Fold:
Amino acid sequence: EPEVTQTPSHQVTQMGQEVILRCVPISNHLYFYWYRQILGQKVEFLVSFYNNEISEKSEIFDDQFSVERPDGSNFTLKIRSTKLEDSAMYFCASSVPSGRGNEQYFGPGTRLTVT
Amino acid sequence: AQSVTQLDSQVPVFEEAPVELRCNYSSSVSVYLFWYVQYPNQGLQLLLKYLSGSTLVKGINGFEAEFNKSQTSFHLRKPSVHISDTAEYFCAVEASGAGSYQLTFGKGTKLSVIP
Structure:
Protein backbone atom coordinates (compact mmCIF):
# COMPACT_ATOMS: atom_id res chain seq x y z
CA GLU A 1 0.00 0.00 0.00
CA PRO A 2 1.45 3.41 -0.91
CA GLU A 3 2.55 5.57 1.99
CA VAL A 4 4.02 8.96 2.76
CA THR A 5 7.65 8.80 3.84
CA GLN A 6 9.70 11.37 5.72
CA THR A 7 13.40 11.80 6.33
CA PRO A 8 15.15 12.06 8.65
CA SER A 9 13.20 10.50 11.49
CA HIS A 10 15.09 12.64 14.00
CA GLN A 11 17.07 15.83 13.39
CA VAL A 12 19.11 17.63 16.00
CA THR A 13 20.33 21.12 15.16
CA GLN A 14 21.73 24.16 16.88
CA MET A 15 19.75 27.35 17.24
CA GLY A 16 20.19 29.62 14.23
CA GLN A 17 20.99 26.80 11.82
CA GLU A 18 18.96 26.00 8.73
CA VAL A 19 17.17 22.67 8.47
CA ILE A 20 15.39 20.96 5.62
CA LEU A 21 12.81 18.30 6.34
CA ARG A 22 11.99 16.00 3.48
CA CYS A 23 8.84 14.19 2.49
CA VAL A 24 7.85 11.92 -0.37
CA PRO A 25 4.05 12.12 -0.80
CA ILE A 26 1.97 9.41 -2.41
CA SER A 27 2.62 9.56 -6.11
CA ASN A 28 -0.83 10.41 -7.51
CA HIS A 29 -1.69 12.93 -4.79
CA LEU A 30 -1.89 16.60 -5.65
CA TYR A 31 -2.28 18.39 -2.30
CA PHE A 32 0.57 18.45 0.19
CA TYR A 33 0.62 19.64 3.78
CA TRP A 34 2.92 20.22 6.72
CA TYR A 35 1.72 20.03 10.30
CA ARG A 36 3.66 20.16 13.54
CA GLN A 37 3.12 18.97 17.09
CA ILE A 38 5.02 20.54 19.94
CA LEU A 39 5.39 18.04 22.77
CA GLY A 40 2.21 17.87 24.79
CA GLN A 41 0.30 20.19 22.48
CA LYS A 42 -2.07 19.90 19.55
CA VAL A 43 -1.18 18.94 16.02
CA GLU A 44 -1.15 22.31 14.23
CA PHE A 45 -1.54 23.09 10.54
CA LEU A 46 1.38 24.95 8.97
CA VAL A 47 0.86 25.07 5.22
CA SER A 48 -0.81 23.46 2.23
CA PHE A 49 0.63 23.33 -1.27
CA TYR A 50 -1.06 22.72 -4.59
CA ASN A 51 -0.08 23.24 -8.20
CA ASN A 52 3.41 24.38 -7.19
CA GLU A 53 2.29 27.13 -4.90
CA ILE A 54 1.13 27.67 -1.35
CA SER A 55 -2.65 27.46 -1.19
CA GLU A 56 -3.03 28.19 2.50
CA LYS A 57 -0.79 28.91 5.48
CA SER A 58 -1.25 29.49 9.17
CA GLU A 59 0.09 32.33 11.25
CA ILE A 60 2.83 29.98 12.47
CA PHE A 61 4.22 29.80 8.94
CA ASP A 62 6.20 33.02 8.96
CA ASP A 63 9.13 34.17 6.85
CA GLN A 64 11.44 31.66 8.52
CA PHE A 65 9.57 28.83 6.83
CA SER A 66 9.41 27.87 3.19
CA VAL A 67 8.20 24.89 1.20
CA GLU A 68 9.28 23.55 -2.12
CA ARG A 69 8.61 20.71 -4.49
CA PRO A 70 12.04 20.54 -6.13
CA ASP A 71 11.23 17.58 -8.34
CA GLY A 72 8.32 15.31 -9.13
CA SER A 73 8.52 13.36 -5.90
CA ASN A 74 9.94 15.33 -2.97
CA PHE A 75 8.21 17.97 -0.87
CA THR A 76 10.41 19.90 1.55
CA LEU A 77 10.00 22.20 4.52
CA LYS A 78 12.87 24.57 5.22
CA ILE A 79 13.38 26.49 8.41
CA ARG A 80 15.97 29.19 7.75
CA SER A 81 17.15 30.04 11.25
CA THR A 82 15.86 27.62 13.83
CA LYS A 83 14.70 28.71 17.26
CA LEU A 84 14.30 26.66 20.42
CA GLU A 85 10.53 26.87 20.04
CA ASP A 86 10.72 25.15 16.63
CA SER A 87 11.44 21.89 18.46
CA ALA A 88 8.51 19.66 17.54
CA MET A 89 7.38 16.66 15.55
CA TYR A 90 6.75 17.69 11.95
CA PHE A 91 4.26 15.69 9.91
CA CYS A 92 3.90 15.73 6.15
CA ALA A 93 0.60 14.71 4.57
CA SER A 94 -0.85 14.39 1.09
CA SER A 95 -4.31 13.99 -0.39
CA VAL A 96 -6.25 13.62 -3.60
CA PRO A 97 -8.56 16.62 -4.08
CA SER A 98 -11.82 14.78 -4.70
CA GLY A 99 -13.97 17.38 -3.00
CA ARG A 100 -14.59 18.05 0.66
CA GLY A 101 -13.63 15.72 3.42
CA ASN A 102 -10.55 14.38 1.69
CA GLU A 103 -8.54 11.83 3.62
CA GLN A 104 -5.09 13.14 4.30
CA TYR A 105 -2.38 10.50 4.41
CA PHE A 106 0.29 11.26 6.98
CA GLY A 107 3.93 10.33 7.17
CA PRO A 108 5.57 9.04 10.37
CA GLY A 109 7.00 12.44 11.22
CA THR A 110 10.40 14.03 11.77
CA ARG A 111 11.30 14.91 15.32
CA LEU A 112 13.23 18.19 15.26
CA THR A 113 15.25 19.07 18.33
CA VAL A 114 16.79 22.55 18.46
CA THR A 115 19.50 23.01 21.09
CA ALA B 1 -12.24 29.62 13.35
CA GLN B 2 -12.67 26.08 14.56
CA SER B 3 -11.49 24.34 17.71
CA VAL B 4 -11.51 20.77 18.93
CA THR B 5 -11.51 19.63 22.52
CA GLN B 6 -10.62 16.12 23.55
CA LEU B 7 -11.67 15.94 27.14
CA ASP B 8 -9.40 13.09 28.24
CA SER B 9 -5.66 13.12 27.71
CA GLN B 10 -5.26 9.52 28.88
CA VAL B 11 -7.74 6.67 29.08
CA PRO B 12 -6.75 3.34 30.64
CA VAL B 13 -9.14 0.47 30.00
CA PHE B 14 -9.02 -3.28 30.54
CA GLU B 15 -8.89 -5.60 27.57
CA GLU B 16 -12.32 -6.58 26.20
CA ALA B 17 -13.99 -3.67 28.01
CA PRO B 18 -15.85 -0.95 26.08
CA VAL B 19 -14.31 2.47 25.58
CA GLU B 20 -15.50 5.93 24.62
CA LEU B 21 -13.11 8.71 23.66
CA ARG B 22 -14.76 12.09 23.78
CA CYS B 23 -14.49 14.90 21.25
CA ASN B 24 -16.28 18.23 21.13
CA TYR B 25 -15.84 20.86 18.48
CA SER B 26 -16.66 24.48 17.98
CA SER B 27 -17.26 26.07 14.60
CA SER B 28 -19.34 28.84 13.08
CA VAL B 29 -19.62 26.92 9.81
CA SER B 30 -20.44 23.37 8.87
CA VAL B 31 -17.62 20.91 9.33
CA TYR B 32 -16.43 17.50 8.38
CA LEU B 33 -15.22 15.36 11.27
CA PHE B 34 -12.42 12.83 11.48
CA TRP B 35 -10.78 10.47 13.90
CA TYR B 36 -7.15 9.56 13.32
CA VAL B 37 -5.04 7.01 15.21
CA GLN B 38 -1.29 7.08 15.74
CA TYR B 39 0.51 3.89 16.68
CA PRO B 40 4.01 4.21 18.15
CA ASN B 41 6.57 5.43 15.62
CA GLN B 42 3.98 5.66 12.85
CA GLY B 43 2.07 8.42 11.09
CA LEU B 44 -1.54 9.34 11.68
CA GLN B 45 -3.98 6.89 10.09
CA LEU B 46 -7.62 7.65 9.35
CA LEU B 47 -10.05 5.62 11.48
CA LEU B 48 -13.30 7.11 10.21
CA LYS B 49 -14.91 10.30 9.02
CA TYR B 50 -18.29 12.00 8.99
CA LEU B 51 -19.23 14.06 5.95
CA SER B 52 -23.04 13.90 5.86
CA GLY B 53 -25.95 11.48 6.10
CA SER B 54 -26.23 8.91 8.89
CA THR B 55 -24.87 10.26 12.13
CA LEU B 56 -23.41 6.88 13.12
CA VAL B 57 -20.20 6.23 11.27
CA LYS B 58 -18.33 2.95 11.27
CA GLY B 59 -14.59 2.79 10.74
CA ILE B 60 -11.73 0.37 10.71
CA ASN B 61 -10.77 -1.99 13.54
CA GLY B 62 -14.32 -2.09 14.96
CA PHE B 63 -14.48 1.59 15.91
CA GLU B 64 -17.53 3.78 15.40
CA ALA B 65 -18.44 7.37 16.13
CA GLU B 66 -21.65 9.32 16.42
CA PHE B 67 -22.09 12.87 15.22
CA ASN B 68 -24.33 14.92 17.47
CA LYS B 69 -24.92 18.35 16.01
CA SER B 70 -26.86 19.76 18.95
CA GLN B 71 -24.08 18.81 21.36
CA THR B 72 -21.32 19.52 18.83
CA SER B 73 -19.77 16.18 19.67
CA PHE B 74 -18.20 13.31 17.76
CA HIS B 75 -17.36 10.66 20.35
CA LEU B 76 -15.45 7.53 19.35
CA ARG B 77 -16.52 4.15 20.71
CA LYS B 78 -15.51 0.53 20.61
CA PRO B 79 -17.53 -2.18 22.37
CA SER B 80 -14.53 -4.40 23.19
CA VAL B 81 -10.93 -3.23 23.02
CA HIS B 82 -7.81 -5.26 22.28
CA ILE B 83 -4.21 -4.79 23.35
CA SER B 84 -3.46 -3.73 19.78
CA ASP B 85 -5.74 -0.70 20.19
CA THR B 86 -3.17 0.93 22.47
CA ALA B 87 -2.35 4.14 20.61
CA GLU B 88 -3.03 7.86 20.55
CA TYR B 89 -6.31 9.00 19.02
CA PHE B 90 -6.88 12.41 17.46
CA CYS B 91 -10.17 14.07 16.63
CA ALA B 92 -10.05 16.63 13.80
CA VAL B 93 -12.35 18.92 11.85
CA GLU B 94 -12.21 20.35 8.37
CA ALA B 95 -14.23 23.52 7.94
CA SER B 96 -16.09 24.59 4.87
CA GLY B 97 -14.43 27.35 2.91
CA ALA B 98 -13.30 27.77 -0.62
CA GLY B 99 -10.15 25.75 -1.16
CA SER B 100 -9.54 25.15 2.53
CA TYR B 101 -8.62 21.59 3.38
CA GLN B 102 -6.65 22.19 6.56
CA LEU B 103 -7.43 20.02 9.54
CA THR B 104 -7.82 21.38 13.04
CA PHE B 105 -6.86 18.76 15.63
CA GLY B 106 -7.55 18.12 19.26
CA LYS B 107 -4.70 17.42 21.68
CA GLY B 108 -5.15 13.69 21.41
CA THR B 109 -6.18 10.93 23.81
CA LYS B 110 -3.76 8.17 24.73
CA LEU B 111 -5.61 4.89 25.03
CA SER B 112 -3.85 2.27 27.13
CA VAL B 113 -5.35 -1.21 27.06
CA ILE B 114 -4.50 -3.21 30.16
CA PRO B 115 -4.24 -7.00 29.85
